[in-house]
Amino acid sequence: MKILAMAAAMALACGVASAQDSVKGEYEGKLNNIKVTLDFTNAPLDSVVDYLREISGLNIFVDSKVREKNLVISIKVTDITLRSIFGLMLKPHDCDIMFKDGVLQVMTKADVADKTMKMEIYDCRDILYPITQFPGVDIDLGGGAGVLVQQPDVDAGGEIPIEEMVRAHTGGRSWEENSKAVVKMQNGLLVIKNTPEVHKQVRRLLDLLRANK
């Protein structure tokens, strides 16, 4: 009975996840494909959201922290996507959108970053040290019996500062401004905790390092 109950629970969880993914895909499609013309001047955010909700059919929820900002929106655009409209309206006020709990939520950028952060570990042992350019072996054939082989001293290259490069070239100011963001190199393994977009930037940086090793 316990096994049957566990199987039923797992099937239910998979069904819920599948439904959530389906709804998320539908929302992403509308955000990317529905184009809208807007002309609002000094309009409350709720008024603009109500209009977008009506024409798109999206269930849109405005978080309390955003409401506390009492945002007033002025926007005049022609035939641009819903995603672009939300970006133009919200980003100047440090707000953004994310799909969560089956609805499109308007939240502060800090909250969006916090809820989308994930941890990944990248194996960097293959690029941690540069390939040493070994000079050729000197062979001295002069002066007498036999062959004298002289191997020059090799100055091993230092460790590539991958952690510092990640901080400098990815994530903007998120490493300093978000206390939950993590970048740490441990024994050749790079531990990163940040948003999916920053993880993409990190992967691109590591690919570049590998390509130019």
Task: Quote the average pLDDT.
Answer: 83
Structural class from helices and strands? alpha+beta
The count of DSSP E runs of length 2 or more, i.e. the number of strands, is 10
Radius of gyration: 27 Å
Uncertain spans, ≥5 residues at pLDDT below 50?
6-14, 139-155
- Sketch the major β-sheet: 3 strands, mixed
- The number of distinct helices, counting runs of at least 4 residues, comes to 8
Helix % is: 40-55%
What is the domain total for the residues? 2
Determine the N-to-C terminus distance: 57 Å
**Could you say which overall geometry the principal axes of the C-alpha atoms support?**
elongated
- Summarize the helix and strand pattern as letters: HEHEHEHEEHEEEHHEEH
Description:
With 213 residues, the chain is an alpha+beta fold. The chain is 44% helix and 27% strand. The chain has 8 helices and 10 strands. The protein has helices spanning 2-33, 45-56, 64-67, 82-90, 109-116, 162-169, 174-177, 196-211, and strands at residues 35-44, 60-62, 72-81, 95-100, 103-108, 118-123, 138-140, 148-150, 182-186, 189-194. The strands form 4 sheets. The chain has a 3-stranded mixed beta sheet. It has a 3-stranded antiparallel beta sheet with strand order 6-10-9. Strands 1-3 form a two-stranded antiparallel ribbon. Strand 4 (95-100) and strand 5 form a beta hairpin. The longest helix is centred in the first third of the chain and has 32 residues, at 2-33. Residues 6-14 and 139-155 have low confidence and may be disordered.
